[in-house]
Structures are given as structure tokens and as C-alpha cells.
Amino acid sequence: MTDAVSFPAGASAKPARRDIGIKRRYAAERRFRAYGIAALSFGILFLFILLYSVVSKGYTAFQQTMITIPVEFSEQIIDKDNERATDPSKLMTANYPVVARNALAKVLGVAENDRQGLRAVNQMISDGVRGQLRDMVTANPQIVGTTQTVSLLAAGDIDSAFKGQIDLTVSENNRKVSDQQVGWMNQLAESGALGKHFNTGIFVNGNSSRPEAAGVGVALIGSFYMMAIVLVLSLPIGVAASIYLEEFAPKNKFTDLIEVNINNLAAVPSIVYGLLGLAVFINFMGLPRSASLVGGLVLTLMTLPTIIIATRAALKAVPPSIRAAALGLGASKMQTIFHHVLPLAMPGILTGTIIGLAHALGETAPLLLIGMVAFVANYPTTPMDPSTALPVQIYMWANEAERAFVERTSGAIIILLLFLVVMNVGAILLRRRFERRW
Amino acid sequence: MNMLKLSAAALVASVAFAGAAVARDQVQVAGSSTVLPYAKIVAETFAETFPNFKAPVVESGGTGGGLKAFCSGVGEGTIDIANASRAIKKDELEACKAAGVADVQEIRIGYDGIVFAADSSNGDMKIEPKDLYKALAAEVVVDGKLVANPYKNWSDINATLPKGPIAAYIPGSKHGTREVFEEKIMAEGCKEAGATDAIKGLVSDAKQAAAKCVAVRKDGAAVDIDGDYTETLARIAANKTGLGVFGLAFYENNKDKLKVATVSDVVASTETISGGQYPVSRPLFFYVKKAHLGVIPGLKEYVEFFLSDDMVGPEGPLAEYGLVAAPDAQREEARKAFEAGKTL
What we know:
The structure holds 2 protein chains of 2 kinds. Chain A has 2 domains: 61-199, no CATH class; 217-434, Orthogonal Bundle (MetI-like fold), CATH 1.10.3720. In chain A, 63% of the residues lie in helices and 5% in strands. Chain A contains 19 helices and 4 strands. Chain A has helices spanning 2-6, 22-58, 75-78, 89-93, 96-108, 115-122, 129-139, 156-162, 179-191, 201-204, 217-248, 253-265, 270-284, 292-316, 320-328, 333-361, 365-369, 390-398, 404-434, and strands at residues 63-72, 147-153, 194-198, 374-375. Chain A starts with a helix and ends with a helix. In chain A, 41% of the residues are buried. The model of chain A has no long low-confidence stretch (mean pLDDT 88). Chain B contains 15 helices and 12 strands. Chain B is α/β, with parallel strands linked by helices. The model of chain B is unreliable at 15-21 (pLDDT under 50). In chain B, the strands form 2 sheets. In chain B, strands 1, 2, 3, 4, 5, 8, 9, 10, 11 and 12 form a 10-stranded mixed beta sheet that branches. A two-stranded antiparallel ribbon of chain B has the order 6-7. Chain B starts with a helix and ends with a helix. At the A-B interface, helix 11 and strand 4 of A face helix 1, helix 2, strand 2 and helix 10 of B. Strand 4 (374-375) of chain A pairs antiparallel with strand 2 (57-59) of chain B, so a sheet runs across the interface.
């Protein structure tokens, strides 16, 4: 019929070609491609929105406002009666916040008897200076009585205000920083004493109730311990189980049942593993609460089905000709598997393992019940010590009231995403390294 | 095989870890997310002030969850302190005693105000408990009959409330705050609106009548928030005519985004709450396992430090964050009661 249209009447009457629907089929293909591209762009759009919202909110967390001023380590305040030679604890318990406050008040020209002014000055510096100045003094007691230039952490509200995250146009009563403090902040910024510096604290500090001093250090260590435990336990157990199931086990009702169960376990909500961990590891075995050891064990249980399924798929994908050749040359079944099949299945196994680990790294629900969703300030030295994990830290910061925690939440998400990217790149590299074609 | 050796080593290592269950050297705390920020501040300052003790570990998980973990028994594997945004219930205490936690010390740390706020783009709002009751009750009395809540817009109830359909974000039932909301707003509002007696006339069972007063409508106008206040804040930012329930401390930290309503003409502040004028407030508690005192290093010191005026006093960091300090006499009494070992 199309021919009739394209060849007007009067032209030599060609016989009509048989309609094999070429145009229709091409159109269908074009449509399918368009759907595919649409689906892909949809996915990329959402990925972009996610990354944009996280990065645009979070990049400021990697900078921290600091106030660099000369601080007088006054003997009057730190050690009035000159007892530090005989009683070193004097240096531990001295009133360092006052030292820092007086230093800033001096720079800003606030009189020593202006109580209200001093209070406002004090609110500009982080309470974390107590620890900072104490560590300086205990490391080097000679500095008592001298004046040193020190970079002090600005308080969280000043940090937020300086980064423009607090709406300064609303009336003074409706925000945490006063006009006077904003004036001081601008004055210090102009003189160069107040400025943004790279925030190493967010990587190395433990959690803190003060946003300016809070970091993911403890969570990083906790996540590292857990990942190490998951890797060391789930990889050998998972691989051994799948080799047995795939290569040695008889095919009968019982192994079918096991297979169904493994597939089911892979889909069980992770909170169930948390309940199991609480009952078995903490209540029955008496392991400590909040410890990354227990977290690692729970996540191992959660990761095992994923690894077993991936490993069995990888073993199945090794061509039977390899097995047949090895057996034909006189290798035992064990030799065939460990010398030929397993090395060829390795890329698949490693990819499955790393995907399982990445999944476990992002898990919070099972950690809630074993006490790892917690405020932990001290670094864990062994996996038996209390710690948290990266996603837990994100969750806890997301629930904080202070404005300065908003950017830190996104900052912690960026750190977690970087970890995941590193792990997945590792998976790709390992795959490339071990992949063999036949 | 290399891998087999590795797994054997791992198993041995984990068993060795399990065997060497070392004495716990830090306090473990769990419970209310309302008390959590205060407990964190104290835990952190405690570790800074006493360098020979580690900072206590503070878990969140809600009042109910905390008390459950607290009441699971005595020993190093159990927590030492449960934070609570309401007093322990009778059946919870009985469960505690049945599990061997015989001596529980109750400590009141101060008060928390509950505020009602909308997006900062709204005008000044003045509400009474009866307004919220009328807006949010599942059934109200109209012409002497109980009918499903007919109100659609805030303006049907009170002209100062946001212009638009009724939307309220109230704490879900797992929060201790919900109980306070029901008691101080819904039940109180029911009474103010004169509905209590009317309902009693309609429903014969007294218990059911009381439940009718506090039942919240389920047609979508009142939304239970099971997460934290940050979720409520996000909901309010998305819905400018919505009214949210917040803790005073959370509001103080987000004043530039929120417009707070006066309740019965009183502005919520630490002064009006400690003075008793502001009607919606509640005490905050924590519970200490007496059997762990002297066993867990730092437990006694932590509680004493928490109760010192440097922490819970009106000039302390907790008040700075938003806690309403208890009156001087009450704080002194709390310290004495702990010292004397008074148990529930």
C-alpha cells in the first residue's frame, strides 16, 4: 500500500512488493531504544540529583572555621599556687576555657568586668578548647606563663553563620548568634584571625555533642573492624559451603531444601539478624554490647547467603570442558576443583564478596539491637571495645538539632560513598586481574 | 590451603576474644532520644574532667527500648543506666524486679518543654489546648452527638493558625512525648471544650470515654512521626500550613526556620516552664542499676557529675542546650536521694 502512495498513478505499474513490515520493525526498534535511553537518563538524573544534594550540602563540612589568636597561658588561671611541679593533676583540671575566652576578649577589646560581653565571647569558641589547650600544656608544661599563637575551633553556631548557613536576616531573637557576635566574627575575619581551614577533625575525631569537634574517626575504625571480621569469616565459610554444595553434595531433597533456605536467607530483612545477634552473641555467649566484634559477626551472617549464591553462580559458569580435561589427565576431584575450577571462578567470587561487603558496610538496622547505634567518644583499641559504624554516624547526625550537623551529615555520606566507590573499583580491578577468557 | 588456614585463624581469634571477656571499663547508657543530647554532653564532659575514666557509651533507641534493655538483668552484659522521657511504668518495674534488677534508683534531671511550631513564613499564632483538640480529635461532640471530626481548615477553629487545611505532625506512639501530648493537650482540650462530660454522657464506660478524648483523627490530617524532630522539621518545610510538635531544645536550635505558637497565651521558654506557667512540659529521668554501683568503674562518678550544678544547674551546658533546670531544692533533693541510695 505504501508503494501505491509513493508511486503516483500513471507511472509504470510495478508489481506491489510483498509487505514484510520493515518500517514497522525499524520503528519498534527505534521505540525500544528510546525507552532504554529514557530509562537510563531517568536513572542518571536521579543519581545526579542525589549526588548534587549530598555534595552541595556536604562539601562545606570539610572546612572548619578556626580563630587564630595569641593565647596567654596565664599562670594566674592555670596554676595559681604554683603547684604543678608537685601535683601534675593541676594541669589536667585547670580552667582552660577561661584562658581561651580571655585571649579572644583581649583581641576583641572586651573589658574584663563586662560579664555579658565575656559570656558572648565565650559562646564564640568551642568547648573543645578545654581538651586542646590541656593537651598542649601537658605535652609541654614550659608554655605556662608564655603567650602562644593557637588556632582555636570556632563554636558550631559561628561556623554555620560564617558559612552562611544561618539566616542572618531574621530578627536577632530568632537565631542562635547575636548581632554583636556576627560583628565580632566579621571583624576577626577582616583581620585574618578567623578563617576556614581544612577540617581534619571530621576524619580523625570521635563523635562529639559539639558539631565543630565531631568526626567519624571512631565510626571509621568500627566499620574497618567489622569489614575485616566479615571478610575473614564469611569468605572462607561461604566459599567452602558453596564448593561443597556445588561440587560434592548429592542432589536430593535435603540439598534442595538447603538451597531454598539460602536463597530465602538472602532476602530476610537485616533487622532479623540483629535480633539473632542480640539473643545469641550477647545474651547467650556473653559478648559485650556495642562491640564491633558482635557487629562483625551479625553482618557475617547477613553476608554469607550473598557470597554463597555468587560463588555457586561463579562455579557453575566454569565450562565443564575444564573439569573434564583435568579429570581426564588424572587429577583427583579435589585437585580439579582447587587447581582449575576455583581459580577460574575467582573473579566472580571476589565480585560477589565485595558487593556483599559493600552491602554490609551500609547496614544500620541490625546494629541498632546490639547497641552500636550509640554515642561513642573514645577510640576502640580492640574489636571488643564499643564503637559505631559509618552509616550509624550518619543516622545519628541526621537527628541532631544543631544546624552545623546538617553539613556534617552530608559530609559523612560523602565519606561513605567514597568508601563504596573504592570498594567497587577494587572489585572491578580484581576482576580484570583474574579474568581469563576461553 | 591458604584460605583454610585463614579461616581457622579467624575462628580461633574470635573464640579467644569471646573467652577473654574483660571487665567493662566504661558506663553503658541507653534510652530516650530526648534525653540523648543531654547524656551525650555529660558523657563527653565527664571524660574530659576525669581523664582516668572513659566516656560512657550512650545508645539511643527510645524510652521503652532503653528500659527493656535495662530490665533484662544484672551483670556486665547489661546496661547500667536507662534514660527516660517519662517515669517508669508499674509493669516495667515489675518486669525489672522479676529479671533480678531489684534495686532501681530514679533520678530526675530537669524538665523539657513541648512546643507547637509552624514554618517561619506564618504569622503569630495563639493556641489553646481546646483548639488542638478540636482540630485533631478523631470524633468531636456536635449537637450532643459524637461525629467524625468535621473540621477541614485551621481557620474553622482559630483565625491565628496558618491559613489552609489542617495538618499536624505529632510524635508517634513509640515516643514518650506522645503521652505528654495526649495528657496535656488532648485530654485537657477535651475538658476545656466541654466535651469530657458530653462524651461521658454518650459512652457509658469511663475508660472508653477517656480514650475517646485522646484519640487522634486518622483521616490524614494528623500524621504520626515515628522518626525524630528533624523529620517533623522537614515535613513542616514542605507543608507551610502544617503544625509540628517539637522539644524546646530542638526549637531553640532552629528558631530561624520555625514560628512558635503561644499555648494559653504563654510563650515557651526555660523561664515559663520552670515557673510552671507554660502548660506542656514533662520531667526527664534516668534510672540507675544500684547493683552496678561500685562494680562498673565510673558509674557513681558519672551520676554524681550529672547531678552537679555544673551540669544540670541553670547556668550549666544542659540548660544552654535547652533543658529546663529543676528548682534548686529539687536538685539538692535528687543529689541527697542518690547519695542515700533510695530505690524504687
